Amino acid sequence: MPVKALPDGAVDDAAPGARSAHEGILRRQSARESAARTYARALPIVPVRARGLTIEGADGRRYLDCLSGAGTLALGHNHPVVLDAIRKVLDSGAPLNVLDLATPVKDAFITELFHTLPPGLAGRARVRFCGPAGSDAVETACELVRAATGRTGLIAFTGAGPGRAPGPLDASAGPLDQVVRLPYPQDYRCPFGVGGERGADLAAHWTASVLDDPGSGVPAPAGMIVEPVPGEGGVIPAPDTWLRRMRQLTADRSVPLIVDEIETGVGRTGAFWAVEHSGVTPDVMVLSKAIGGSLPLAVVVHRDDLDAWEPGADTGTFRGNQLAMAAGTATLAHVRENRLAERAAALGARMLDQLQELAREFPCVGDVRGRGLMIGVELVDPQAEPDAGRGARAAGDGEGDPPVTADSPRRPHPAAPDLAADVQRECLRRGLIVGLGGRHASVVRLLPPLTITDEQAVAVLDRLADAVRAAARCREVVRQQRRTRE
């Protein structure tokens, strides 16, 4: 039976046969796949067709997809330039996997990639193809700086959520290696309780102290790794002044700076690479997701003087994916030539402004933040006491900490992961796919393709607002019923 076609983004009752097929596939997935599956638990849909922002399920329903393959789909689903690039490779008879051999397809990809790099890096860059996942690229970057410096320790940052760094860093660390996590500055849940420029300054001073104090227990590191906007960590843009301080601190101490652009790259934040907002030129860039044009691809771009690899070091069988390179070339060129990063900056700013209205209407929306088309909405419990462990008051808990004053920022309420999950479910009921992130999975994440239209952006925000309204109303009804019983 053909799948019923619906208006873009509409949600309607599926035909019985389509619904049965849909439910059967989900049942078999649950019975046969590992319990490790994640997105499938929160998003019980069975995609069969997709184009741009829209996904159509086996049950005939259509959804606006603001997850975008966890940021992989810069141009949305099945963009014509990507499909054309893939067809050309298939029709040419070119090999699909070439390990690390040189090919015209690879040469075109590297040429286009170098066109987009920050000027300070492009002129002296080398590119390292590795396994196809972002975590492969992170581990490769860490091994690169260890080989180049002869040191083993690494500096990463905490307070920004899980991200990719902790897992791969721990996995690649030997018994003598040390991964030190330092405070990551942010406004809403500032680790120092002050936020703003003062919070960023304190975080920078802390990092400098650790690096320069022989008694800190932290030996000179092989490198520092930072995400300009931790996505899975809750969409927390790094202050530009802080990121510039990190660049200066590492440059002065001959510590390579690794910037993780896996999710932020290819125009997502309103600049082609997120580091461009701060004017920082890193020593190493970790790239994946959108650079493959929806197909698996990951690379590490680094300064030529860090190229201390021995032949055959850190290899990966699937580092020669020709289809991904062709799709990636088409994506990079389309974003660059059509100035989609600039459009992401303008549209993202308008969406953030409208979401601020949502925060004013609903006390359960604790914070709205983001950069470009990388947006986060943090859900909190406004009925609970403000969290003394995270906001302004946290800074006064220890001896020598800054005192809490009338000028200190408001203490945020505790995160509400259950409410965030309710909002995600209500979004899905309304034909909108969103992700969750943050340290408590309490941040609703929007990662629409850079090709989203103004009209689609309005539809996304309308459905999100309606979902928040429904989830908050349901939560209030439950509270009132509980009070009545008590």
UniProtKB/TrEMBL annotation:
Protein name: Diaminobutyrate--2-oxoglutarate transaminase
Pathway: Amine and polyamine biosynthesis; ectoine biosynthesis; L-ectoine from L-aspartate 4-semialdehyde: step 1/3
Family designation: Belongs to the class-III pyridoxal-phosphate-dependent aminotransferase family.
Family annotation (CDD domains): OAT_like
Record keywords: Aminotransferase, Pyridoxal phosphate, Transferase
Lineage: superkingdom: Bacteria
Cross-referenced Gene3D superfamilies: Aspartate Aminotransferase, domain 1 (3.90.1150.10), Type I PLP-dependent aspartate aminotransferase-like (Major domain) (3.40.640.10)
Region (Disordered): 1-26, 384-418
Record-listed E.C. numbers: 2.6.1.76
Biased composition (Low complexity): 1-18, 385-395
Broad EC category: transferase
Cofactor(s) annotated in UniProt: pyridoxal 5'-phosphate
